[in-house]
Write a structure and sequence with these properties.
Blueprint (H helix, E strand, L loop, with lengths): L1 H6 L6 H13 L2 H29 L1 H21 L5 H13 L4 H12 L2 H14 L1 H17 L2 H20 L2 H5 L16 H28 L5 H20 L8 H16 L5 H12 L2 H13 L4 H33 L1 H21 L27
Helix pairs in contact: 2-3, 2-8, 2-9, 3-4, 3-5, 3-16, 4-5, 4-9, 6-16, 7-12, 7-15, 8-9, 8-12, 11-12, 11-15, 11-16, 11-17, 12-14, 12-15, 13-14, 13-15, 13-17, 16-17
Length: 387
């Protein structure tokens, strides 16, 4: 868990670092949002593909190859002289297409590390622990970018990607687990209602968070560390929520209830741009985030075969990244037109849909109270009739 958290640490750094870097160069949050959207779209396209490739070529091969290409692209964005926005978008797209699929890899490994009773608490612990990325990442990025430069912040993210990636791929668990090759066509796993529900809700949840992130940065400006502190408090709320609610049984209303907590906090945050008001309301909103993610991971695990888990989590990642792309881009243009309030309005709209969708499609949400959340075995014993 520690290795994958370090390897994924750039996820909590790159969005803010790129936002500050591109805005400082082109003086437009809209331009910065477009670059972030391009990178997120690249990740969204690659997610199911690279996750599925791990069942063909092995986790280590895919992770090393993608990380090498991604680090090169990130270096171009950081160190190249001033480039036109379309060129930054093209390089960001390459970085996204090659972003290492650490999250699908580790979600696939977990069911082989613990028994079925420990799996749901492990998903919850992981969803809570990953909030450390969003607690420390924005603070470190904002401090380094404002006090030194955004280029140094991007360089630090690259260092985490390289160091954490090496640590993760050399971990014994990565070598022990072999993902079976999926026998179904790519995308077929989305026909399973829980996977589709988790993908759509992940899209809305992350879209809301991306819009809030842009709004908070716009509120305090690119020269103030306050945005990093507010976003860290937002993530601390999620960490507390994951630890407090992660053990609760997962019934058919579990996802809607957790998404409602996120929505109500963001809706209240729109009332004022005061530092402490934003911090408190986003802390409230954050209480629902890690528990909601844990529910998504668990209902998917319980609904697919082991050979399909990596691709299923890849699709969830794709949904989240499309949400990040649309949330960042929409918030960027709304901020340019209506100041920081515009970004919060975008976040509230995403969060409201994220609450409503699980209610409308609650029949797609499995009731896992007292049930095994492990993936469905790829081979099962069959009964034979003896003559």
């Amino acid at each position: 868990m520690s290795a994958q958290l370090v390897a994924r640490f750039p996820s909590g750094m790159l969005s803010l670092a790129f936002l500050l870097h591109i805005e400082r160069i082109h003086h437009s949050y809209g331009a910065a949002g477009l670059v972030l959207a391009a990178m997120s779209i690249g990740q969204a396209i690659a997610g199911p593909l690279t996750s599925r490739w791990m069942g063909v070529w092995g986790m280590r091969t895919v992770l090393v190859l993608t990380a090498t290409i991604c680090v090169t692209a990130l270096g171009v964005i950081a160190y190249a002289p001033k480039l036109p926005v379309p060129v930054y978008m093209a390089v960001g797209l390459i970085a996204g297409l090659s972003y290492p699929p650490i999250q699908p890899a580790v979600r696939t490994i977990y069911p082989k590390m613990v028994n079925s009773k420990q799996l749901t608490p492990l998903f919850s612990l992981d969803a809570s622990a990953q909030e450390l990325i969003w607690v420390a990442g924005p603070v470190i990025t904002t401090f380094v970018a404002t006090q030194i430069s955004p280029v140094v912040a991007i360089t630090l993210a690259i260092a985490f990607m390289v160091g954490g990636g090496i640590w993760f791929v050399t971990s014994p668990a990565v070598g022990r687990v072999r993902i079976p090759r999926s026998k179904r066509k790519i995308g077929a796993v989305l026909l399973r209602p829980p996977v589709l529900l988790a993908t759509v809700c992940g899209f809305l949840l992350v879209g809301a968070c991306a819009a809030i992130e842009a709004a908070v940065v716009a509120t305090f400006g690119h020269d103030s560390p306050d945005s990093g502190f507010v976003l860290a408090i937002f993530a601390i709320g999620s960490l507390i929520g994951g630890l407090a609610l992660g053990h609760l049984p997962i019934g058919p209303w579990a996802l809607a209830r957790r998404m409602f907590i996120m929505f109500i906090g963001m809706a209240l945050a729109a009332a004022s741009l005061n530092f402490w008001w934003l911090a408190l309301m986003l802390a409230l909103s954050g209480i629902g985030i890690a528990p909601a993610l844990a529910v998504m991971f668990t209902i998917v695990s319980a609904s697919v075969k082991f050979s399909e888990t990596a691709e299923a989590y890849g699709w969830i990642g794709t949904g989240q990244l499309i949400g990040a792309a649309l949330g960042s881009a929409a918030a960027g243009f709304m901020i340019d037109g209506f100041d920081a309030h515009g970004g919060i309005w975008v976040a509230v709209a995403f969060a409201l849909l994220g609450f409503v969708i699980p209610i409308i499609f609650r029949r797609a949400h499995p009731d896992l109270r007292g049930k095994d959340a492990s993936p469905i075995p790829d081979t099962e014993p069959i009964q034979s009739i003896r003559p």
